[in-house]
Amino acid sequence: MNEKPTSALPAAIAGLAIGVGAALGGWFIGRGFYAWHMSDRYVTVRGLVERNVKADLAVWILAFTATGDDVGKVNQEIEHDNQIVLDFVKARGFSSDEIEPIATRVSDMLANPYRGNNQGGPRYIIRAGLMIRSLKIDLVRQASQMTGDLIKQGIVLGQGTGDSDSAVNPSYVFTKLDSIRPSMLADATKSARAVAEQFARDSNSALGPIRHANQGVFQIASRDDQSSGGGEGGWSDSAKEQASIDKKVRLVSTVEYYLVGE
Questions:
Q1: What global pTM score does this model have?
Q2: 251 neighbors 182 (Cβ within 8 angstroms)
Q3: What is the mean pLDDT of residues 206-225?
């Protein structure tokens, strides 16, 4: 008679274990469904920020050529032109540390297998030049507008130091991107979150944590450039944009947010 309560105890424990197991199983199933449901609901937004900046470095190449059939005389002419150009840039306020000579190149047209001997023209073409690399942006711009003085002295500008022509205009570069990178990234993130919050409100949802984020690429163009840049890419500081002192730095960050609620 006294053995029945003892035998009922394991059965009660087993029943309790089954109940707890079922409850835990239901909890895990519920959590698994929530995780799947949450991962299936998210919104992708882009945060845009732009900053107007001024170039802080100027690179100005003054290339010139001399031609003739006597290589010695052509070389003397190129050295003469080089001195005229050097005097010109120094008279405009540039120091020797800002002036770098470009390697001289000599082309013998008769040695060109693609050029016949009966085409006429000078045999030798010598190309040389100077490169001004300076932080004096306004001074470079002012001096570049006075190259007519060199042309009046017989200097043939803009023929490059290679096989193709090069522009006489200076290139202006913005080198201080690191100084504005953190603040621009923060602003782009705020912009993306504002768009995501608006989307969540419109869809009767709440904004959850970040699912995925892409910082994007910093792009530099002329301040007057109105192109969209194709979202996260497409802007580059090309030759056209390099001629502008006033720049526009653009960042498009892409962020994915989870959406929670109904």
A1: 0.72
A2: no
A3: 90
